[in-house]
């Protein structure tokens, strides 16, 4: 990572160093210089990311002379909401998506993945010479490679990928107005740099979004780790795990509310907080029954690693991406049914009410739940490491995003709510792979918990280099209460 504008820092990680940029509002004055000739930014799309990024960019660039405009497809139902947030046709900040693309120096493509796969050629055709193409997901690269396409020559291609949901990108940006450093971490990638300024533009974009720190990746690594992660420990595996544990605790004689607490509430609450504040080894130290944690960990690691590897292969060869594109037309007439109506999720309100009761003691970390969860998280970490991902990317995609953002969000609103309200790509992946994780936990891991723990696997966990990588990254994370 290089910059002629921003001061780049070095992060020491296992096996070497990586470059990062520490963000902050004190850097906003450097944005016009860093954007290098960009006078108009067109944000195409008004989904959660489009809405958040357009507003953050506009607010950060206020008074700089750089205009942020929103482009929507004709007849878009989002137009009224965009107007309500201050983007209007009258001042030239709201318009037809192709017109906005044609008028912009940086075109940020934030329409849905399936729609982008279907319409990218129309957008590319109207770009002004040398305009920068901006992405917040590498999905399009995977699609282009699978179909023999490519980005148009002569255009810088950059990515800034916030490691969290669009609503949180905006909410934590607003929190950052009073809490220095609050925001969502982001990765940046420079895929094409014909004019030599793409890297600075990517960093400027990340700073303007409010990223506390920005780490470097490639467009290919980003979409692989992102799509695998959301099908793994970020969402799909969590859904499969808590469904499994809820049923298991019921079979063991727990009442429904207690079963929900020991599964979902433990994962989204004390388990996530412990990892966030103290790291993964602290979980093992915190449980009352270390032997049960060890047996659960060693029973789940292998099955979880197998599924993560399978997901990775299907993302890498385009299978998972094609499934998202195929779903695009189908979902236009047959929307996905929600999962939140199952009996398990009916316990959530009672658990949250009990959580607020002064008479209710702090919930301990259940060793079975913790062992299965930590094993799955480490399995994803190890798979990413073996596939050559950088440590900054690994700890963000597999740990920080989970424990500092997504799990607290689920704690406030529920896992089922998260599944039913996330992006189409993530929702499709969760519905496909969550049941696979559930089957592996029920059919392979839980029966194996009765066997003695594998000391080699426990030693590998204790010596895992991810602990050092996470500790290094944690030094750069702001100590704030995340706004959910």
What does this structure look like?
The protein is of the alpha/beta class and 484 residues long. The protein folds into two domains: 9-213, Rossmann fold; 228-474, Orthogonal Bundle (N-(1-d-carboxylethyl)-l-norvaline Dehydrogenase, domain 2), CATH 1.10.1040. Helix content is 57%, strand content 11%. The protein is built from 21 helices and ten strands. It has helices at 31-34, 48-60, 79-84, 97-103, 113-126, 139-147, 166-175, 198-209, 219-231, 236-251, 256-278, 281-286, 290-316, 319-333, 348-355, 367-386, 391-413, 415-421, 424-448, 455-462, 466-474; strands spanning 9-13, 16-22, 40-44, 67-72, 94-96, 106-109, 132-135, 157-162, 186-192, 213-216. The chain has a ten-stranded mixed β-sheet with strand order 1-2-10-9-8-7-6-3-4-5, sandwiched between helices. β6, α5 and β7 (132-135) form a beta-alpha-beta unit. α10 crosses α11. The radius of gyration is 22 Å and the shape is globular. The two termini are 31 Å apart. The model has no long low-confidence stretch (mean pLDDT 93).
Keywords:
globular; 10-stranded mixed beta sheet; alpha/beta; 484 residues; N-(1-d-carboxylethyl)-l-norvaline Dehydrogenase, domain 2; Rossmann fold; 2 domains
């Amino acid at each position: 990572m290089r910059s002629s504008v921003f001061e780049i820092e070095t992060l020491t990680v296992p096996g070497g160093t990586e470059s990062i940029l520490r963000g902050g509002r004190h850097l906003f004055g450097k944005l016009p210089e860093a954007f290098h000739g960009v006078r108009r930014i067109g944000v195409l799309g008004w989904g959660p990311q489009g809405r958040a990024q357009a507003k953050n960019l506009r607010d950060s660039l206020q008074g700089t002379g750089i205009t942020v405009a929103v482009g929507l497809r004709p007849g878009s139902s989002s137009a009224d909401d965009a107007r309500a947030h201050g983007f209007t046709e009258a001042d030239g900040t709201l318009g037809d998506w192709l017109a906005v693309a044609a008028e912009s120096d940086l075109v940020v493509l934030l329409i849905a993945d399936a729609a982008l796969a279907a319409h990218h050629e129309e957008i590319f055709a109207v770009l002004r010479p040398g305009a920068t193409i901006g992405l917040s997901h590498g999905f399009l690269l995977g699609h282009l490679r699978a179909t023999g396409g490519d980005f148009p020559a002569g255009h810088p291609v950059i990515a800034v990928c916030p490691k969290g949901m669009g609503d949180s990108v905006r909410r934590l940006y607003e929190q950052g107005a009073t809490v220095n450093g609050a925001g969502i971490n982001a990765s940046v990638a420079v895929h094409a740099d014909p004019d030599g300024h793409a890297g600075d533009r990517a960093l400027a974009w990340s700073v303007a979004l409010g990223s506390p720190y920005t780490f470097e990746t490639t467009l290919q690594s980003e979409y692989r780790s992102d799509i695998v992660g959301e099908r793994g420990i970020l969402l799909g595996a969590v859904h499969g795990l808590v469904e499994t544990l809820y049923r298991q605790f019921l079979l063991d004689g727990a009442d429904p509310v207690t079963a929900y607490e020991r599964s979902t509430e433990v994962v989204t609450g004390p388990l996530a907080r412990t990892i966030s504040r103290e790291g993964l080894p602290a979980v093992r130290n915190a449980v009352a029954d270390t032997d049960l944690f060890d047996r659960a960990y060693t029973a789940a690691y292998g099955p979880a690693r197998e599924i993560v590897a399978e997901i990775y292969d299907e993302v890498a060869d385009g299978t998972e991406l094609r499934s998202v594109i195929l779903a695009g037309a189908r979902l236009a007439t047959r929307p996905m049914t929600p999962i939140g109506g199952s009996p398990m999720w009916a316990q959530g309100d009672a658990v949250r009410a009990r959580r607020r009761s002064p008479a209710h003691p702090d919930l301990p970390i259940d060793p079975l739940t913790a062992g299965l969860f930590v094993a799955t998280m480490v399995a994803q970490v190890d798979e990413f490491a073996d596939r050559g991902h950088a440590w900054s990317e690994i700890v963000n995609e597999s740990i920080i995003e989970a424990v500092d953002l997504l799990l607290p969000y689920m704690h406030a609103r529920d896992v089922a709510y998260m599944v039913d309200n996330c992006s189409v790509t993530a929702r499709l992946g969760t519905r496909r792979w969550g049941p696979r994780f559930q089957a592996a936990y029920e059919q392979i891991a839980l029966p194996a918990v009765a066997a003695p723990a594998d000391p080699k696997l426990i030693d590998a966990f204790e010596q895992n280099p991810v602990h050092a990588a996470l500790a290094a990254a944690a030094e750069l994370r702001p100590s704030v209460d995340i706004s959910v």
